[in-house]
């Protein structure tokens, strides 16, 4: 289950539950869900995602025991762009990883027991990991770290 690609997994309209487990994906776009189907659920576990992960206004997304980092193809993409409610649990991020949410608003992203390079993720670190080009959209959503709402 190893892929070094430009696009790892792409999902289109109409998918129900998309399960990704025990994979290593290194590419510009690790997972891209090009859908606004509220029935679609993205469930990712035990997986390394090096690159850009994003998904449309789907029902929900969850990541458990995942590792997020920069892709090696071009060495410039290390992003998570959630456009739907997202739960991120027991995940580790590289120190150069960024979060943003494009034009999404009203979503909730919850981090539970996550780390940056193996050290506990703090509110201050998380605030620094927001993509500054995307701050107005980020502020239109709720970001929660271990039960604490992140304030800007």
Q: What's the structural blueprint in terms of helices and strands?
A:
Layout: E1 2-12, E2 17-21, E3 24-34, E4 41-45, E5 48-55, E6 60-64, E7 67-69, E8 79-82, E9 86-89, E10 92-93, E11 98-99, E12 108-112, E13 115-116, E14 119-120, H1 123-128, H2 135-139, E15 142-145, E16 148-149
Parallel strand pairs: 1-3, 2-4, 3-5, 4-6, 5-7, 5-8, 6-9, 7-10, 8-11, 9-12, 10-13, 12-15
Antiparallel strand pairs: 13-14, 15-16
Task: Tell me what you see in this structure.
By secondary structure, this protein is mostly beta strands. Helices cover 7% and strands 49% of the residues. It is built from two helices and 16 strands. It has helices at 123-128, 135-139; strands at residues 2-12, 17-21, 24-34, 41-45, 48-55, 60-64, 67-69, 79-82, 86-89, 92-93, 98-99, 108-112, 115-116, 119-120, 142-145, 148-149. Strands 1, 3, 5, 7, 8, 10, 11, 13 and 14 form a nine-stranded mixed β-sheet that branches. Strand 15 and strand 16 form a beta hairpin. The longest helix is centred in the C-terminal third of the chain and has 6 residues, at 123-128. The mean pLDDT is 91.
Reported for the largest beta sheet, the result is:
9 strands, mixed
Shape summary: globular
Radius of gyration: 14 Å
Could you give the distance between the termini?
Answer: 39 Å
Which ranges are low-confidence, i.e. pLDDT below 50, for 5 or more consecutive residues?
none
